[in-house]
């Protein structure tokens, strides 16, 4: 019984319970902040056309630039540059004189966990022969 009393006395005298609670809360907060360390960068990118029949030319495009918003962990997206990302419109189904809306495909040269949003996601393009 004497030994049990000594442990309780030491815990009370050293104030170990509040110190332990504070330490656990600090560890939980550190994990929360490190997980939620999400950053977002915005990059303006040119749109590249591919697959267009060699007899056709692009006569009109709604805009040649799109905005890409990339979000992810700060350490994973800090090295993203314009030359790592290519935005491509496949024009293999283009028809002469018709405006058509084409989806934009995004190709990225690196493998990390990130989320990318293109604005706009589609382009209106007209071709001529």
Structural class: alpha+beta
What is the CATH architecture term of the largest domain? Beta Complex
Order of helices and strands: HHEEEHEEEE
Largest sheet: 7 strands, mixed
* Secondary structure tally, helices: 3
Could you name the CATH topology of the largest domain? RNA Polymerase Alpha Subunit, Chain A, domain 2
Average of the residue pLDDT scores: 76
**Whole-number total of structural domains:** 2
Separation of termini? 98 Å
Low-pLDDT windows of residues? none
Helix fraction, binned, reads 25-40%
Total strands: the figure is 7
Order of strands across the main sheet: 2-7-5-4-1-3-6
The CATH C-level class name of the largest domain = Mainly Beta
Radius of gyration over all CA atoms, rounded: 28 Å
| Shape type | rod-shaped
Strand content: 35-45%
What attributes does this structure have?
129 residues, alpha+beta, seven-stranded mixed beta sheet, rod-shaped
Task: Please outline the helices and strands.
Blueprint: H1 2-14, H2 16-35, E1 38-50, E2 57-61, E3 65-73, H3 74-77, E4 85-90, E5 99-108, E6 114-119, E7 122-128
Parallel strand pairs: 1-4
Antiparallel strand pairs: 1-3, 2-7, 3-6, 4-5, 5-7
């Amino acid at each position: 019984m004497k030994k049990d009393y000594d442990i309780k006395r030491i815990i009370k005298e050293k104030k170990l319970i509040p110190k332990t609670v504070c330490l656990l809360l600090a560890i939980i907060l550190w994990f929360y902040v490190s997980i939620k360390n999400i950053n977002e960068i915005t990059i303006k990118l040119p749109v590249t056309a591919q697959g267009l029949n060699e007899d056709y030319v692009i006569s009109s495009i709604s805009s040649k630039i799109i905005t890409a918003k990339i979000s992810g962990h700060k350490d994973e997206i800090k090295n993203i540059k314009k030359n790592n990302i290519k935005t491509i419109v496949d024009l293999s189904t283009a028809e002469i004189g018709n405006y058509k809306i084409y989806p934009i495909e995004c190709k990225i040269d690196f493998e990390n966990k990130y989320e990318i949003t293109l604005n706009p996601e589609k382009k209106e393009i007209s071709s001529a022969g």
